[in-house]
Amino acid sequence: MANVTVIGSQWGDEGKGKIVDWLANRADAVVRFQGGHNAGHTLVVGDQVYKLSLLPSGIVTGTLSIIGNGVVLDPWALRAEMEKLRAQGVEINAENFAIADNCPLILPFHRDLDALREQAAGAGKIGTTGRGIGPAYEDKVGRRAIRVCDLAHLDLLDPQIDRLTAHHDALRAGFGQPPIDRDRLKADLAEIADFVLEYAQPVWKRLNKVRKAGARILFEGAQGVLLDVDHGTYPFVTSSNTVSGTAASGSGLGPSAVGFVLGITKAYTTRVGSGPFPTELDDETGQRLGERGHEFGTVTGRKRRCGWFDAVLVRQSCAVSGVTGIALTKLDVLDGFDKIRICTGYRLRGKVLDYFPSHAADQAAVEPIYEEIDGWQETTAGARSYAELPAQAIKYIQRVQELIETPIALVSTSPEREDTILIRDPFTD
């Protein structure tokens, strides 16, 4: 059986939750492989609405759900999320949920540092969620992280805390903050340890067993490719690699396990936070897109910036992430527009570009080149086959496919799981 890796092809918020939920219903295991609780998925299943930040989407259907080693884990946020879902009737236990024992932890002082930096950055603000994601990844790379497996050996933690405090106390002093309270940190870790360790295990081993049994594995990415720390709109990016290749290193399975790469792609463009956005619309059209698309962040509640579809960005994302096919979401938000625009290229200081440049100044200076096509007045909401779509909506889909040089595998026409037009099954070899 084929495995499937789901990524966002824009700046996140493309509607991955609905698609992952739809796929998770047919998978044997779902794996989160990067990011933290700065990512959010909203799942609509019947009358129930589930909001997830850390837990893989498969947990709602009882599918084996795994947090891989590429994730940075806030154990207190995880506990709160699990309590909320259990109150909604979701069963979570050691049989259907596991955490990589080599997963790094987000600790209270990471959140403090994140907020302090943003407050002091002025015009250089990145627009983080303030949840400690970046500082936790810094500690991982700096080889001073406390990991899940360390919670089973709290009596041996002093050397690691020495490394942490040597780094963080100097930073905190620069912001006029007191040193890390070591005793409080140890007490906090002792309080949460049993909860985390109930689910901790070498998940690479469990996943290898699942794979050898011929099961279907769904790798669930967070954020989007344009927020990748290497390939995104640096420095306005997240602190992890969001491209599909990270599914291998962030789960403990090799590159051959990645399988079909499905790029979730919104029929227009949005982003949250600071950074360049060539097709952003600061007018009635942008407001209309935001209102019709209910464009507010699942995690932060922040209003998303909205604009026309940018084919240059999505083509680039598909190329660097090896996307096999895309899932086009929120097509119904474009219902009723007389004219619809698609960005097909950029002008930069007299030159025409067919790619998004790497330097922040160039990214901010590019001017979109638009192609305009006729819209449609009929509704696409709830359509489950091409035959139910207006002719102009089909033309729009086909033009998007041509411009991004990647086939469309499915089209989502509402938040409901079943309102999906399947063109190519990602789980079919």
Radius of gyration: 22 Å
Question: Regarding quaternary structure, how should these chains be classified?
Answer: single chain
Structural class: alpha/beta
Order of helices and strands: EHEEEEHEHHHHEHEHEEHEEHEEEHEHEE
Please list the strands of the largest sheet in the order they lie side by side: 7-6-5-2-8-1-9-13-17-18
User: What distance separates the N and C termini?
Assistant: 6 Å
Number of helices: 12
C-alpha geometry: globular
Query: How confident overall, as mean pLDDT?
Result: 93
Low-confidence stretches: none
Q: How large is the share of residues in beta strands?
A: 15-25%
Helix content: 25-40%
What composes the largest sheet? 10 strands, mixed
The count of β-strands is 18
Keyphrases for this structure?
429 residues, ten-stranded mixed sheet, four-stranded mixed sheet, 12 helices
Can you tell me about this structure?
- The protein is an alpha/beta fold and 429 residues long.
- Helices cover 31% and strands 19% of the residues.
- The chain has twelve helices and 18 strands.
- The protein has a ten-stranded mixed sheet, with helices on both faces. Strands 12, 14, 15 and 16 form a four-stranded mixed sheet that branches.
- A hairpin with a 2-residue loop joins strand 14 (339-348) and strand 15.
- Helix 3 (108-121) packs across helix 4.
- It is globular and about 65 Å long.
